[in-house]
Amino acid sequence: MNAAIYGPLGAGKNVQCKKLERRYGIPHIVTGQILRENAELETPYGTPKEYMDEGKYVPDEMINSIVEKELSEVDHFMLDGYPRTMNQLENFSEIITGLDVVVLMEVSDETTFYRLLDRKICSNCGDSYHKEYRPPDTPGECKFCGAKLTERDDDNSEDIIRQRIQEYEQKTVPVVEQYSDDVVVVDAERPHEAVWEDFFEVVEEYIPDDRL
Ligand SMILES: [Zn+2]
């Protein structure tokens, strides 16, 4: 399965991908997470840590090379948030020729704000929670691995959220448009269980038979 998932912040991509990964062993590849995992990796552009420590954007070239390494180690994947820019798409097209499916999860800006302002992330497995939309069974604790839930610093400011919505529209929407023939839209305004049913229906045919 070679797939990618898109959608604005708070669309619930993380929740759906983590579920797919847990149940069917399809690796969920998230740029932010693999950068953190490879923070010390030496690349021709330096290490990811050097950029992240200074709060700078990690250059596309570095992201490309780390994603490339990551993809070379898996047979199946669900990419989340990559390729995120036209520049990344150009490089990605050289490594992977075509995706089986591209899922676009649609939510309104209001929903993005609502879900992000109260988001908590598992410090271990990266699953996400929200006090109303997706509460943990025990407050402050991940229901899958029991680790502590933390807030992402950048989730809590309306200005930053607005900036990221704008960035998604300017940089990522054109990438999704390039995939237009392979894109399946899922209405992600609904509760995540309902979204999962639609999401799963879209991806099911690409999951290897021995994992179903
Ligand atoms: Zn967890």
Q: What would you note in describing this structure?
A:
By secondary structure, this protein is α/β, with parallel strands linked by helices. The chain has a single domain (2-211), classed as Rossmann fold, CATH 3.40.50.300. Helices cover 42% and strands 15% of the residues. The protein has eight helices and eight strands, in the order βαβαααβαβαβββαβα. It has a five-stranded parallel sheet with strand order 2-3-1-4-8, sandwiched between helices. Strand 5 and strand 6 (128-130) form a beta hairpin. Helix 4 (60-72) runs parallel beside helix 5. The longest helix has 21 residues, at 158-178. The protein is globular and about 45 Å long. The mean pLDDT is 93. Bound molecules: zinc ion. The site of zinc ion has 8 residues, from loops. Zinc ion (ZN) binds at residues 122, 124-125, 127, 142, 144-145, 147.
Helix-strand pattern: EHEHHHEHEHEEEHEH
CATH topology-level fold name: Rossmann fold
Describe the strand arrangement of the main beta sheet, using strand numbers. 2-3-1-4-8
Cα gyration radius (Å): 17 Å
Number of domains: 1
**Ligands bound, unique:** zinc ion
Mean pLDDT: 93
Secondary-structure class:
alpha/beta
Query: Total number of helical segments?
Result: 8
**Can you tell me the CATH class?**
Alpha Beta
- Main sheet attributes: strand count, strand direction, barrel closure: 5 strands, parallel
User: Spans of 5+ residues with little confidence (pLDDT < 50)?
Assistant: none
The helicity comes to: 40-55%
Q: What fraction of residues sit in β-strands?
A: 15-25%
CATH superfamily, please? P-loop containing nucleotide triphosphate hydrolases
Indicate the overall shape. globular
Report how far apart the termini are. 13 Å
